[in-house]
Amino acid sequence: MRYADLVTWLDDIAAARHELDRSSTAARVADLLRDQITDGALVPGARLPEEDLCRAAKVSRNTMREAFRLLVQERLLVHEFNRGVFVRRVGADGLSDLYRVRRILESEGVRCAPAPNGTRSTASARPSRTARPRPPPPAGRTSAPPTSASTAPSRRSSAAPGWTR
Question: Sheet of 84-87: strands edge to edge?
């Protein structure tokens, strides 16, 4: 083979590389199952029958088991020994974590969202602590209570009457 033929052949491969599918069959099957889970077609606690899925996807049992392993690693499925593979149920701790993450993401989304005039303004999304109005002082008091630093006993004064150092 001449060098010119080799270069032409390699150029053809390089031009067609965008057509290459870099995922394995198991990864593609896992993608299909993941979509079914996230769309709600497979509900939590549902058993996934391996033989039926293999026939439907036209893949081997080894490929389906590899897809199951991928989704178990992502914590979407759970494998129960001698029972099969099930869609994971979310417990109370998982729900708590989910809502905690959701609150963080939504708060950050609001903070970073553009203002109605198209500019990015974090001041309108997150008021500063100093901008909040203070509650009125209790009845009979005309000013805010003293801070803890000003009410703490000093070393020169006695903390209670009759107490000596």
Answer: 47-48, 84-87, 77-80
